[in-house]
Amino acid sequence: MGTCDRPAARRPAGLDGRSYHQEFEVLCRYDVFFTDDLFDPASGLLPSVFADPGPDGRFHVGVCLDEGLVNAQPDLPNRIAAYFAAHEGRIKLAGEPAIVPGGEARKGDWEAMLDAVWHFGTPRFGRQDYAMIIGGGAMLDLVGFALSIVYRGGRQVRVPTTVLAQCDAGVEVRTFVNEAGRKDFASTLAPPFAVINDRAMLRSLGRREWIAGTAEAFKIALCADRELFDFLCGSAAAIGDRDEDVMDWIIQRSAVLHLERIRSEGMAFGTGREQPVDLGHWVGHRLEAMSRYWLPHGQAIAVGIAVDGACARRLHLISDEELDRILDGLTRAGLPIYHKHLDERTAHGQLKLLASLEDMRHRFGPHVTVLLPDRIGHAVPVRAPDRSTLAHAVAELAERAGDSAV
Ligand SMILES: NC(=O)c1ccc[n+]([C@@H]2O[C@H](COP(=O)([O-])OP(=O)(O)OC[C@H]3O[C@@H](n4cnc5c(N)ncnc54)[C@H](O)[C@@H]3O)[C@@H](O)[C@H]2O)c1
Ligand SMILES: [Zn+2]
């Protein structure tokens, strides 16, 4: 029997003893564009956003549209087709645009989500093509999530079509879906290839969605930018009158602050570091679920900011005057500071809201911290408020909201 030809006993390069240290960096890079009327055939922006064309020298693009948006802008599919025809030397539709039901109620609908991706750009959509998602924050989350599990992210070009999505959700690197009554239970990391904030998209928004987006602007302003906070407080009338220039300024500032926060805090990348729950969000998310998603995200976050503000005052982080400014600012912008679900109790008399913190402890460990303002334009992570602080904060807001409570 011949001896077995073993390879020479040489260790693979890099193997040190019995371990190999793996390390590489994943670069995250995308541009956020601000424009007015992306699908005006005279606009050359869209073809310039893509890179790396297909074998025919053109960029292949599958388009997915929010049904609520199409209902409000019925000519949009035709305008998109006309735009692609006008620029056919550079861009090509990968198939018929898919129209996907939008809104919060569909954000947990796995079947609709996977169906959306399946029909995304049939018959010719491939991993190398671009997925253009045009819609509100819920639909961007839904389709982005599906793309990230089916195509490992894909090359997403997002066109957020609500104020909230242009300020915040659209420029994010995470996507979320709801599960079993739990808001944003599942998430993926799926940075976009590019984001295009088109102010023309916002013209068909109803008043409620127009105002809702300013809640996320208040959130980031309160945490990071006093000047934006002052601007928001001073612009209530202009926002109500649908002054587009004012809203444009708010959106640009909020989006950039949000991008800076994602980069500097690395908060999305699950580093294992303890991350505080964002201002207004531990309350807001629970209210959304309690209202069976009848209460929109923006309005729920506004109530959450009010509760966190009242807790911050009780914890002596901010003064009475600062709390007044926060509550006045939200109210004058047309946002709620109280909701009847805030004061709902269990059979043992505890605020049902506290279950939100219990859920978080269950998922992320016992030491849940939340972001609270310690002055206007700055926030700090602190231990989640205790029952008594929260109960007092809720009672104070109920009194303050009076008859205007929703
Ligand atoms: N991924 C993230 O990090 C992140 C960040 C913030 C918010 N979000 C999510 O974003 C969602 C909220 O987004 P939203 O405020 O855009 O609400 P939304 O997506 O629910 O949209 C509200 C309604 O407006 C319709 N609509 C969309 N664009 C329209 C237009 N231009 N004209 C008329 N109607 C239009 C939609 O069909 C929907 O019915 C929430 O699910 C929230 O959790 C995600
Ligand atoms: Zn939010």
Quantity of strands, as a count: 13
Q: In the CATH scheme, what's the topology name of the largest domain?
A: Dehydroquinate synthase-like, alpha domain
Decide which structural class fits the backbone: alpha/beta
Helical fraction equals: 40-55%
Q: List segments where confidence is low: pLDDT < 50 over at least 5 consecutive residues.
A: none
Gap between N and C termini, in Å?
88 Å
User: DSSP strand (E) fraction?
Assistant: 15-25%
Describe the structure.
The chain has 406 residues and is α/β, with parallel strands linked by helices. It has helices at 45-49, 67-72, 76-86, 110-118, 137-150, 163-167, 207-224, 226-234, 236-240, 244-265, 281-290, 297-314, 320-332, 354-364, 387-401, and strands at 15-16, 19-20, 31-35, 59-66, 91-93, 98-100, 130-135, 155-160, 174-179, 182-189, 194-198, 369-375, 378-383. The strands form four sheets. Strands 3, 4, 5, 6, 7, 8 and 11 form a seven-stranded parallel β-sheet that branches. A two-stranded antiparallel ribbon has the order 1-2. The longest helix is centred in the middle third of the chain and has 22 residues, at 244-265. A hairpin with a 2-residue loop joins strand 9 and strand 10 (182-189). The protein folds into two domains: 31-205, 3-Layer(aba) Sandwich (Rossmann fold), CATH 3.40.50.1970; 209-262 and 275-404, Dehydroquinate synthase-like - alpha domain (Dehydroquinate synthase-like, alpha domain), CATH 1.20.1090. Helix 12 runs antiparallel to helix 13. It contains 15 helices and 13 strands. The chain binds nicotinamide-adenine-dinucleotide (NAD) and zinc ion (ZN).
